[in-house]
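User: Could you go from structure to sequence for me? I need the amino acid at each position, not a summary. C-alpha cells:
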C-alpha cells in the first residue's frame, strides 16, 4: 500500500486535496494534527479524507514546543496535557498511529526522568485507547534511544524518516537498531546538507539500501511519502501527485526484491 502526507506543497482546499490523492492511486493519507498552520478545522480532516476513500495512515502531532517535554515548567505541563488529549483524538477517530518528535533544533534541553515520566503516561493512555505512538528520528537520535530504551510497551515505537536519517545521522544504522519497533515511514530525499523533502531519487539517499533495510525489519505497512514540490513548481498539483505516486511505487518495488 502507498500513502502520502496531506500537504505536498500546494495551497488547495483539503477536500480537493484528498480527492486528488485518491485519484492518482494512493491508498492512505497522513494528517497534520493542529491549527498551527491556520487549519482551524483540522479535526474534521479524518472524515473528509475517508469520504474520498482514503484510509488514515497516521496523524503528525505538533512539534513547535516539544523541547518542553524535558522542562519543568507550565509550558511542559500544557504540552503533556495536549498530547494526552491527542491520544483521545486518535482513539475517538480510530486513527491507529500518532507520530511524535522528541526534540527540536540543535540544542534541546537534556533528556531526563521527568520528561520520560510524562511520555510514559502518554503511552499508558495510548495502551488504553489502542493507539500506537511512533517516535521519529531527528537531529538528536539519542532522544529516540533514551525513550525507546526505557519504554518497552508495544504501543511505543519508531517512525523512520529517511530524509532526517540522510542529512543528520547518515552513519547510524537506525533501521537495524529500531526496526523491530517500526510503525510507520516518512520517505523523502535531500542532498545531505539539510532536510529538503525532495522526491525520492532526487537527492543522495541510498534507496536500494534503505528499502532493503525496511524490508528486513518485517515491516508490512504502507510506503509513506513526505515530499513536497521543490523543483516541480510548474507542475499542477495533480501532475506532482502522479510523480509522487510513481516514486512511491518504485520504492515499493525495491522492498520486494
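Assistant: Here is the amino acid at each position, in order:
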Amino acid at each position: 500500500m502507498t500513502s502520502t502526507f496531506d500537504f505536498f506543497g500546494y495551497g488547495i482546499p483539503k477536500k480537493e486535496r484528498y480527492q486528488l490523492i485518491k485519484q492518482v492511486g494512493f491508498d492512505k493519507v497522513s494528517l497534520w494534527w493542529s491549527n498551527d498552520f491556520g487549519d482551524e478545522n483540522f479535526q474534521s480532516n479524518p472524515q473528509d479524507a475517508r469520504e474520498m476513500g482514503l484510509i488514515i495512515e497516521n496523524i503528525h502531532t505538533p512539534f513547535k514546543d516539544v523541547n518542553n517535554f524535558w522542562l519543568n515548567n507550565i509550558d511542559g505541563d500544557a504540552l503533556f496535557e495536549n498530547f494526552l488529549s491527542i491520544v483521545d483524538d486518535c482513539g475517538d477517530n480510530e486513527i491507529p498511529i500518532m507520530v511524535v518528535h522528541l526534540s527540536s533544533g540543535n540544542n534541546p534541553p537534556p533528556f531526563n526522568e521527568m520528561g520520560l515520566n510524562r511520555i510514559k503516561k502518554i503511552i499508558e493512555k495510548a495502551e488504553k485507547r489502542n493507539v500506537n505512538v511512533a517516535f521519529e528520528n531527528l537531529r538528536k537520535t539519542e532522544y529516540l534511544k533514551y525513550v525507546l530504551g526505557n519504554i518497552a510497551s508495544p504501543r511505543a515505537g519508531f517512525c523512520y524518516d529517511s530524509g532526517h536519517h540522510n542529512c543528520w545521522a547518515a552513519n547510524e544504522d537506525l533501521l537495524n537498531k529500531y526496526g523491530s519497533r517500526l510503525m510507520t515511514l516518512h520517505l523523502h530525499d535531500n542532498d545531505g546538507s539539510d532536510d529538503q523533502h525532495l522526491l525520492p531519487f532526487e537527492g543522495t539517499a541510498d534507496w536500494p539500501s534503505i528499502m532493503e533495510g525496511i524490508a528486513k525489519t518485517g515491516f508490512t505497512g504502507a510506503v509513506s511519502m513526505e515530499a513536497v514540490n521543490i523543483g516541480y513548481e510548474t507542475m499542477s498539483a495533480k501532475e506532482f501527485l502522479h510523480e509522487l505516486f510513481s516514486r512511491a511505487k518504485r520504492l515499493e518495488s525495491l522492498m520486494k526484491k
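One structural detail worth keeping in mind: The longest strand covers residues 55-60.
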